[in-house]
Design a protein that fits this description.
two-stranded antiparallel sheet
């Protein structure tokens, strides 16, 4: 029989993280489904659409009072690719969701090196 803390540990919940800012500079939040893995740590159940630097299966921590400040604790090895289209498919606009630094958008994160080095 599991105790109450074990039940809470595997509990699915919804949290909001900052995905960017709107034209007035106000934060834009994305609601994401996560699993609580330990106090203050979450596992992404699906790759986010707008929040950068996260993919399904990643473990991260987040301060409850600051949804803009999340820290990656462990990468899952999943690649997040985000597709955007306004009308037709050609030309298709797409971005990697967790390849580049979320602050400058161009610096490679190189988190995949640990996975490549094990092969």
């Amino acid at each position: 029989m599991t105790n109450e803390s074990e039940q809470k540990k595997n509990e699915t919940r919804w949290i909001q993280l900052v995905a960017g800012t709107d034209s007035q500079g106000a934060p834009v939040l994305e609601k994401l489904e996560v699993k609580l893995t330990e106090v203050g740590a979450f596992e992404m159940l699906r790759s986010p659409l707008f929040v950068r630097d996260l993919a399904a299966g990643d473990i991260f921590s987040c301060a409850p009072d600051n949804p803009a400040d999340y820290q990656i604790m462990k990468r899952s090895g999943n690649l997040a690719i985000r597709f955007f289209r306004k009308d037709n498919v050609a030309p298709l606009v797409w971005y990697y969701g967790n390849i580049y630094d979320r602050h400058d958008g161009v610096t490679p994160l190189h988190w995949w090196d640990e996975f490549l080095n094990t092969v």
